[in-house]
Amino acid sequence: MLSKANFNNEVIQSKEPVLVDFWATWCGPCLHLSPIIDKLAEEFEGAKILKLNVDEAHSLSSKYGVTAIPALLFFKDGEVVSRMVGLQTEDAIRERLEEMKQ
Length: 102
Hints:
The chain is α+β, with helices and mostly antiparallel strands. It has one domain (about 5-100): Glutaredoxin (3-Layer(aba) Sandwich). It has 4 helices and 4 strands; from the N terminus they run αβαβαββα. It has helices at about 5-10, 30-45, 60-65, 90-100; strands at about 20-25, 50-55, 70-75, 80-85. Helix 2 links the parallel strand 1 (about 20-25) and strand 2 (about 50-55). It is globular. The chain starts with 6 loop residues before the first helix and ends with a helix.
């Protein structure tokens, strides 16, 4: 599980692109998105796919301007290169991940 403690190592210093799902247990759309994120994490090659609970990492949510969840932030070379907010389809997320690999 991604946390404030390992965020730098897992995301910022990652050699491969990273998708971070900012979510919370009380967020209905987040719970609907969770199985899609889990599936992509298992199947997708060429990018890390991680989840970050906003209730456990307020400072990171603020730092990256996350004001609504679910929020999907796509990192490349330690920088946010794209974001998606709200419930998304698997196809839309997969397409964005493919774009990041290029």
